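Box 3.1. Reading complex inputs
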Amino acid sequence: MQTKAVEDYLKAIYEVQEREGRVATSALAERLQISAASATGMIKKLAEMGLVSHEPYQGVRLTEPGRKIALEVIRHHRLVETYLVEAMGLTWDKVHDEAEKWEHVLSEELEDRMDEMLGRPTHDPHGAPIPTREGHIPETPRLKLSEAVAGETVTIAQVADDDAAMLRYLGERGLYPGVAVTVTHIEPFEGPLTVRREDRDISLGRPVAECIKVRRPGEA
Ligand SMILES: [Zn+2]
């Protein structure tokens, strides 16, 4: 049985694993906004289904079948977001919530049709890589804009997809994946940083800069 809840858990485990390497029950509970007890119960259930392994002190890990399901759901999510932007003309701040629903119900046939129609896209509108049908997924960049140094020019690779207000904020400033920015100034003591895009200076607070992944020149 593969319910929506199971898919959401597997996706969350995959995302925490990607971000932090190790998946603690507490991190998962926080990500899903549930109690630690509910998370523990669900992990036990997923382990019984053979979708995760749970070793003491090692945290939770997806098994190969668990990883396959997670990547399939993520593929749906990111293809739907791309479809809604590219084919239906929605703005990038309006697609995540829709994709959260579609990702569970998209048939393989429709998925394939969408993929073909869009020209087999490799990344969604937020710059997140779209897993292939076979479950291959390119590395996501790890460097955050907040970690860049003053004077450095970097290219925006990916932005967080789940905060619509922030996406509108970034869009208004032209900060999309593929856009190059130069860090011109960093305020000390965790203060904001200033980036220059073309000839415009943009001040960004830390929490925003932390949600933007960037690439240094020459990085794949
Ligand atoms: Zn999304």
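In summary: The longest strand covers residues 153-159.
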